[in-house]
Design brief:
With about 280 residues, this protein is of the alpha+beta class. It is built from four helices and 19 strands. The N and C termini lie far apart (about 120 Å).
């Protein structure tokens, strides 16, 4: 009996060894299928902005033109190929250069015009920065309404916005802003005028006029075009006996010299130089 029981036990163990193990029933939480992981899209650099096409370069040329009965002599240029330097005389008017021609020659320039206002003592009436050196102080009157700022991106801007740069000149009033004449200008006091103007891009003008009032000049420049430059902004410079324009014979249409005998020495000039 013992031998039969042992044999039966041995057979059961053999069958258990041959039977494959039962599969584990997954837990309900494990049975939930997980979504396949979608690979992240390959990062691509943002497309570079398309640069605005540069307009045609303005020709550097001297000109004489009549606008609204006002004679205007000047030079047009492109700020991408030429620049204006502020030539200031620390020791006062005439201490270095007697006129615009002398200032231009000292700076290797091809044209020059008288620039900012000055006091009877010869101090700048407004802020001036020449070659990084600062003179004068901000002028809050209409004669300091705006700034010419030189450098890589030259501009004419309102005094309220402030300005800085290695070349800077404060003057005024504005004659034209946004392509329209400025209101409230003096309609009387007719005399020679000097001004600087821009098309808001790379086209620039420096010029001297015959006798006119500020209001007359502003009205004449409004919407006007001089030597291919559409006037969008124009800033008045010192005028009257200070008006002094010189343009070299190396400039197309030159030479031009507008400096009557009754002119007086001035504190500073804007000198046109080749090279941006």
């Amino acid at each position: 009996m013992f031998r039969r029981t042992a044999l039966f036990t041995l057979l059961l163990a053999s069958c258990a060894a041959e039977r494959p193990p039962a599969e584990k029933t997954p837990h309900p939480a494990e049975a939930i299928s997980q979504p396949a992981t979608t690979p992240a899209p390959e990062a691509r650099p943002a497309p570079a902005p398309t640069p605005e096409p540069e307009g045609p370069r303005h020709t550097t040329q001297a000109f004489r033109q009549n606008l609204g009965g006002i004679s205007i002599s000047g030079v047009s240029f492109d700020s991408r190929s030429h620049r204006l330097a502020v030539a200031d005389q620390e020791a006062g008017p005439g201490s270095k250069w007697a006129d615009a021609e002398a200032a231009a020659q000292a700076y290797g320039g091809i044209a020059a015009i008288n620039a900012g206002f000055f006091t009877p003592e010869g101090k700048p009436l407004g802020l001036v920065v020449s070659g990084g050196k600062r003179s004068g102080s901000p002028n809050s009157s209409s004669l300091g309404a705006g700034f010419y700022t030189g450098g890589a991106s030259p501009a004419l801007s309102r005094r309220e916005r402030g300005a800085s740069g290695p070349e800077l000149l404060q003057a005024g009033p504005f004659l034209v802003e946004g392509g329209k004449s400025t209101g409230g200008l003096n309609p009387k006091s007719s005399t020679a005028r000097s001004f600087i103007a821009s098309d808001g891009r790379s086209g620039w003008i420096i010029a001297r006029t015959g006798a006119c009032s500020l209001e007359e000049l502003a009205r004449a420049l409004s919407g006007a075009e001089l030597a291919g430059v559409k006037i969008r902004s124009a800033l008045n410079l010192d005028g009257g006996r200070s008006s002094d324009l010189w343009i070299s014979s190396a400039v197309s249409g030159g030479p031009i010299q507008e400096r009557p005998l009754w002119n007086k020495p001035v504190r500073n000039f804007l000198v046109l130089q080749p090279g941006a």
